[in-house]
């Protein structure tokens, strides 16, 4: 069929206009068209009220979440100007709510209405209005009350204006984010609480009220920090700290480049050192800098520089000891920085990072100076900080050394593996997509399995004796077990250690797994079940991804061998035994309980256990993981009472019937 050729010409270029500028591409403005973008649109409205309150107009902001996912933000500031603008020859409500890049915050560095503002670009209010299903606005100012109504980005009914004799002023906006713009608009209450708490932290004295509709009533939460970041740090760290909370403030003037305008920077910081609670949060013009940027770089530089200088000055480094890093410092650091500037360069519209060169330089210089003075005036506290940072450093270095040693122990190249793991029998294929490894118990099983296997793609790994119980053992003991480290070497994928204390030990990579199937093959008796459970426990604790990815199998071995003149039959449980005996009724037969793997003939082993055409494999399923973990803990963990109760209730199932007559 001939392909249709689409012409790309002058008429192919189009321009988005009005609400479509946001509705069709919300991620450009809000960073996402999902829930995160919807949340950011809400913050744009809240931030306008915060800017008013910080300038001294109204000290209370009320945010309401309705059950239909609509949101309302009310402040008690001056009220947004929405009447006719002679300078622009346009109504201000059109500029604010219906035009991008229009607002009152472009002149922050030259005595404008807002010196320090979260919003700078004139995008947030109009963008949120454009992306809403509807928006209702009520404004009280200049002795009038104004009302506006928008639907899907368009004004309906113009501007309503009436005289108002009340003394209160402010702006109240209620809107519902549009599901046709965002994929999800169900903003959790936790988001509102978190945002308002952060804003209360960096806007000392402002009262934030969160109201949530619950049926016909509203639940209210009030959040405020009288002393801002100082109270916040104290709340988080409590009284059990290495040092008291320090509050540092300064104002600087400078420029990012010689040909750029000069601007003001105000820096507020609260800091203490603690072994119990660590925190680093950066805010600029009230906006939480989730990704840091300039403040993060300044803190890294200044704190490492000054603490390292003090350690050298006090001769606390050992001979030939390496220098501290910021990782060593932040393990005992509690720090919140709230900065403001009259010019700000955000990384993008979502304001999660700033890039101002002068802000970084000013903060670096300020923190170096403050730390130097603090250490001189508080030597006892300075010594505590230096000693703790050195403890963190030395502990990190020991962990890193241990991680490297373990990695070298557990990860060996395929060419070295056969020589380094005793009695491991490899296969000829080098293709991981077809290779299988059978983990068997003992040397006797190794012999029969070796003769029964297909040497092209099946390898044998014998386990000598009972493996360590990985559920109850510490990692250092686990990795000293030769049986376990040999198994990990054979598998080749490394380990994933899900422990905060041992986070650096994780070396797992599924791509490095050398096998398509990992098959546990043990005798069908009590000892065999025990060994199988211990191997599964090891895999579940050290490399659970193998289970979740369906790489682990159990080879079923028959309980009974039933021989007739025509052919042998194998029964894997009592029911199969009964069915077979019923089927061969009338024939002569012999029946015997299956021997251990090591006593089986190779042809029987091949037929029942190893041949992909006739064997039975049980895949260890990921949905069994939680139940498996609970059972492992019950039978092999420290839950003695639980184990006692389980045996009391179920023990009879595992005891052979005894004739006591």
Write the layout of secondary structure elements.
Elements: H1 20-23, H2 26-30, H3 35-54, E1 60-65, E2 71-75, E3 84-85, E4 90-91, H4 92-98, H5 124-130, E5 132-141, E6 144-151, E7 154-155, E8 160-163, E9 170-177, H6 189-202, E10 207-214, E11 217-223, H7 229-237, E12 246-254, E13 263-273, E14 279-284, E15 287-288, E16 292-293, H8 294-313, H9 326-330, E17 333-341, E18 353-354, H10 357-377, H11 379-410, H12 414-420, E19 436-441, H13 442-452, E20 458-463, H14 475-478, H15 482-491, E21 517-521, H16 526-542, H17 545-548, E22 552-555, E23 560-564, E24 568-571, H18 574-583, E25 589-593, H19 602-610, E26 617-619, H20 625-636, H21 640-650
Parallel strand pairs: 1-10, 14-17, 16-18, 19-20, 19-21, 21-22
Antiparallel strand pairs: 1-2, 2-9, 3-4, 5-6, 5-9, 6-7, 6-8, 10-11, 12-13, 13-17, 14-15, 22-26, 23-24, 23-25
Helix pairs in contact: 3-5, 4-5, 8-10, 8-11, 10-11, 13-19
